Amino acid sequence: MAIKKYLWILISLVLVAGCESLEDTYSDYAGDGAIRYLGKCTKVSVAPGWKRLIVKWVNNVDPVIDKIKVRWQVNDMKDSILLAPNTTEYSIPDLEDGNYEVTVCAIDKNGNESLANPIFGRPYTPTHETIISFTRLISKHYFVKKRLVLFFSTWQENISSAQLNYYTADGNVKTLELTSELMQKKYYLLPEEIDPDKPVILNREGQVEGCDDLIVFDPYQLSRDKLYTSDFKHWLKAKYGQSEISEEFIESLRELEYDYSLSSFEDILNLPNLEKLVLGKNRYLRTDMADQVPQSELYDLERSLFVLDVANTVCGLAVDRYNKHYIPDENLPAYVTKKSNPTQPALTCLDASTWEYTCSEEDKYPYNSNLENLFDGQLDNWWQPELISTLARTYEITVDMKQVQTIHGIKIVQKAFDKADSQSASLMPGKIKVKVSTNKISWEDATYVEENTIGATNGETTILYFPNSPDVRYFKFIVNDQVYGQNFSVSLAEIGVF
After folding, report:
1. What is the pLDDT of residues 336-375, one digit of tens each?
2. Which of 173, 208, 334, 471 is the most buried (most CB within 10 A)?
3. Quick one: which of 496, 497, 492, 498 has its CA closest to 381?
4. Residue ending a domain, choose from 121, 142, 168
């Protein structure tokens, strides 16, 4: 019994000693007493506004909280503000673009701060990509002499108001209200003359997603720089060799010819001195097929008709249309002169009877593509490689004229066939590359472009003129297979050199 009593005493002493050791250890870390942490702010959120960030939070009920501190920083810039302890929202004003780190913490009278977790936010500013990409309502515009032409984009419901401010020819400032009703017209010619030397300013107010602020966007000045479609730029290079479109060249154009399908006529609004537009003059269709074969098309007929009306009204533009290219008869404006199938110019092609010609894709016996038919001067026969179902081929047809000659151009004729012959209709090429050489070593493009568009209708003739009339001995004609169902081949009736 005595032994058991002493054991309990010993255990008690050990426990007391252990407790004192733990307290001593805690005191080493706690200093004068236990650390008391302030209750922190919770549910902190940051929402973007116009040049500001809206910060919201839920306060802790800790009674010793004296102030709320909101701190924000971006890059090397830091700032903060002290708020009343019952504040639950603050708008950080006058911010530049950037991804801001924001913290919200509670502070007691001694300056002790609660824990705070950072949260990030980015305000909407003029340099924000969402603001930059906000609709300008006007997708394109053209200054045509003293008139302004507008192409509208789609009206958006987040637009509060929009105005176009301009100076009239007599010096007055006027405003055009841009509304959803007006923009339903798609295209608009300002009804009065403007002062072409004064700015035209677009003002907008609206909202963006995730922002409750009404944004007053920076005024936008309509540029006077001329923009051209890819169709127009390609056509100018092919027709005139204009790789870079100079203002001098644009102002020199009095007459413009279009021959092949394109998006629209809108580029003529950039041509201040254009007097005549000629459509389809260089497409030589079979006389007996002119009303039955596909014509050159406009992919945006409505826009093109508006453009023609503007050019006729403002600039007095006259239009000649051959066959039924571009504009259906039922849409033909009164100022367009209808013309029939153009007459081919009289060309004397060289005698090819002594020439040598080869093709990169040789016939597989016993099939004969009749390559010689391309140069025999006869339109009732043709060249056509074997129809295959594997991979499409590229054909390089090399011609040796045996002597150097000065060449002005070539005439290319599509195969003539019965209109019910769907295979022949499918195998006509619409593009051809023409290269020339004097030594068969160095080759140059015969025209201004590497690949030339040619008319692809039943028996159609295309004439390609060579700039500068080069000296030539060797030709290389390059065409690709066309698709017929699941098969590939191509056909041409004639290539004449003049």
Report:
1. 999 999 999 999 999 999 999 999 999 999 999 999 999 9
2. 208
3. 492
4. 121
